[in-house]
Amino acid sequence: MGRTQEISEYEIFPSRREAPLGQCPGNDRSAGKRRSGKTRHGSKWLDTALTEAALAATRTNDVYLAAQYQRLRPRRGHSRALGAVEHSILTACWHMLTTGEVYREAGADYFTRRDPQRATRRLVVQLERLGHHVTLKAAAA
Hints:
This protein is mostly helical. The chain contains six helices and two strands, in the order H-E-E-H-H-H-H-H. Strands 1-2 form a two-stranded antiparallel sheet. A hairpin with a 2-residue loop joins strand 1 and strand 2. It starts with 8 loop residues before the first helix and ends in a 12-residue tail after the last helix. The model has no long low-confidence stretch (mean pLDDT about 80).
């Protein structure tokens, strides 16, 4: 069997200003013009591992990353939503390595808990599009 090699955070993320391993999309704007926002090429091994991890995360139940994918997929498409999940995984890894904190799962209902009025408005509009008249009444506490 091969030896395990210990990798420090500085080998993975050389500097804070660099996009982690080519995964972040560029945001090149000047004088009102937008240029290419493609992601840079990074390590093909890391990219494959991140894609596999993101796909596995999107297929689990009651997980923040799956909820993020489900929320973005209708608007952005499969590959861009998957890229956003990959970026979230890299960002979480960076924070865990730099601060020493443990990953805390936000939960699948994170977006509903963050802005409940938005979720309510979305559901009311959805019911009205189906032809229902909606009257909201506060629940007894």
